[in-house]
Amino acid sequence: MTLLCVPIFVESTEQAKREVMAAAEAGADIVELRIDSLKEAVPVGGFARAIVTCRPTWEGGRSELADEERIFLLQAVSKSGAAYVDVELETYRRHPRISERFDVPLIVSSHDFKGRPEKLHNLFVELNAIAGGVNKIVWMARSIRDNLEAFELFESEKPTIALCMGEAGLISRVLAKKFGAFLTFASLRDESATAPGQVTIADIKRLYRWDAINANTKVYGVVASPVMHSMSPAIHNAGFDAVGHDGVYLPLLVNPGYESFKAFMESFLAFEPLHLSGLSITLPHKENALRYLKEKGAQVEELAERIGAVNTIVIDRAAGGLPLRGFNTDYAAILDTITATLNITRDELANKRIAILGAGGTGRTAVAALANLGATVVVYNRTFYRAEELAREFTGQKGKVVAARMEKLCDSCCEIYINTTSVGMHPNVDQSPVGDTPPKFTAHTLVFDTIYNPVETKLLQQAKSAGAKTVGGIEMFVRQAAGQFEAWTGTPAPLDLFKRVVQSKLQK
Ligand code: NAP
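A: This is the predicted complex of the input protein with NAP.
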């Protein structure tokens, strides 16, 4: 069983006792009492299963004591009831008989806050050769691929802690349980983290499904840079909980650029014990995903190719042959948001005249989806030539696509308006892509703003006050996630739960 350990910096017996109780209430199996700041022993044992650590400054800690004083302090504190004592590999090298001075097993640890240790393999061989106790090796992830090396270290017979620090290393902390680590660390609160990238115990338990993770758990994630703002882990993990799917969904920080994306895909796909089963792809990697799948000869949905972006990858090894499939759930989410709001079929969209505001990635997706159904689409964009390019590319498919200047918007007479620009997005909530003089909206108009933060944009307020029907970006966001969820799990997505999760995240 992999233990969930909460580190606590000890300042006094009372404060430590309070935090130990809070850690136990939050679900910790063990605490690490960091006594770096103590000058003399205080009784901290007896109230929890504890690791006692006095980390010197030269290993990233706060203790300036000399070796002998530090070891003496560790002895004095650990006598009051510790389960383990942590000493640095360097301390162990200087005092090879140090284990004889303690009644409890040692965790012998090595930390590198700059990057992957140059001689990682040699270091680990040295740790492994120490009789008894636990190996601990921690380093700052240079890229997400470092996590795979950490997972490989769990093949050791000896109990091992192997973790990568930083945002890219988050997955090593959560998946420690999948790979049978001795423990992982999680902080009591954001500000009490003892290492970069450490997640809180509340997040590891609830957001990342700690209790459900086992050796066979399938791994999913969102590939992005930056990634920590993404709401997708909260949505998909809540969904897995709701339908009882044995999966965990993680933020996967992959640096910008095709080579980084390709290196990530190649290494993660080849690492079979990971059970990588599905990926959401977002900025800046949607085009990279399409290119990678095409290079591999994988199956790619036709419209995703025309749009030029893949936002979903399914990895299905059970299917045999090449296990990769790529598609785009954004365009279906746009169509379904409109049809569900108007209570019409997709075919009925062919008779509509639709204004798309914006000619960026989302605008392109909307144009491709609607033109493919035969709708008449007018693209308005601040930079006119981009609207013209889009119109040229997609007209004559089934529908008609024309470009128009933003200033002409007020003359237009469309039944549906879709905002795909970023105008009105938080924090610029007092802006509207139509300015202060919106086109003539009526009770027969639908105004769809793809922005989801704020939930009700100024554009939607303008439309509402003119009596038009409105729908916001949350609807699209949860529908694109639902398409992914269904492709991965084969189970209908709990759409209402997804909406509640997004709404509660946005309210924070
Ligand atoms: P993008 O590719 O960067 O395109 C941005 C678009 O906004 C361009 O057409 C740009 O016009 C226009 N724009 C930006 N600032 C403007 C301004 N001050 N005045 C007028 N036009 C302006 O971005 P994207 O990826 O398509 O995302 C656009 C929006 O879609 C985002 O705000 C996001 O909220 C929304 N979105 C929603 C979802 C969802 O699931 N609900 C998913 C993805 C995106 P120029 O060509 O003139 O620069």
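The first strand starts at residue 3 and ends at 9. The two ends are 34 Å apart (CA to CA).
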